[in-house]
Amino acid sequence: MQLDDQLKIRTPEGVELSLTLAGLGSRIVATMLDAVIQFVVILIFIVAAALLPGEMGDLGFGLVALFVFLLFFGYPILFEVLDGGRSIGKRAAGLRVVRLDGGAVGFAAAAIRNVLRLVDILPGGYAVGAIAIVANSRNQRLGDMAAGTVVIRERTATTPVTVAPLPPGAVRYDVTRISQEDVALIRRYFARRDTLASDRRQQLASTIAQRLAVKVALAEPATNPEELLATILHQKAGG
């Protein structure tokens, strides 16, 4: 029986993937961790401003007020854009922000969802946001709805993807037509393959390999779909 909320998406390659949505509890944990980090940083700046003499101290407290404003909005936006949708709190809680199509969140989406925290936190304690998450089938707060994003739980029990260097003389493909979305699709496959039944794993690998074979000009079907996917991943990484 499936207890977790799932988001099913179909990639441009025609492959259906299922993402596990983060619930209210795990999102609260991530938010509290981020809030503690922000509080500690602000406290350090307040203490530093208090130690400044005279007018310098007044200026320091003015700068602290500006810093608090920038930190409230800038901290989550910066980390979500630079760390693949993860703030420090989300990383610790095993969460990630992604677009509704499963792709990486960009600056515009990160900015929209975090600016709208001003609404989600009303009237206090993220009450509006919490109600929206519980009432929404995709577990989205208002900021997520406006930005077209969801928060998902990352699978942490799988083995990290490692691709050995290609041996001399190994077949190399023209991967210039392989997009970052294709790379993300391959990584998602390797991240969840150990959770799949053998037949489903082979079927999914074969489906993805067939879609990407056209892009790398492979004349015949891949005899080992996972090997093809790993090779493409390695070459796109610069190997």
Please describe the topology of this protein.
Elements (H helix, E strand, L loop, with lengths): L5 E5 L5 E5 L3 H27 L3 H29 L5 H6 L1 E5 L7 H9 L1 H4 L6 H9 L6 H6 L1 E5 L26 H13 L5 H16 L11 H12 L3
Antiparallel strand pairs: 1-2, 3-4
Helix pairs in contact: 1-2, 2-4, 8-9, 9-10
What would your notes on this structure say?
The chain has 239 residues and is mainly α. It folds into two domains: 6-151, no CATH class; 155-239, no CATH class. 55% of the residues lie in helices and 8% in strands. It is built from ten helices and four strands. It has helices at residues 24-50, 54-82, 88-93, 107-115, 117-120, 127-135, 142-147, 180-192, 198-213, 225-236; strands spanning 6-10, 16-20, 95-99, 149-153. It has a two-stranded antiparallel sheet with strand order 1-2. Strands 3-4 form a two-stranded antiparallel ribbon. Strand 1 and strand 2 (16-20) form a beta hairpin. Helix 1 (24-50) packs antiparallel against helix 2 and helix 8 (180-192) runs antiparallel to helix 9 (198-213). The protein starts with 5 loop residues before the first strand and ends with a helix. Residues 156-161 have low confidence and may be disordered.
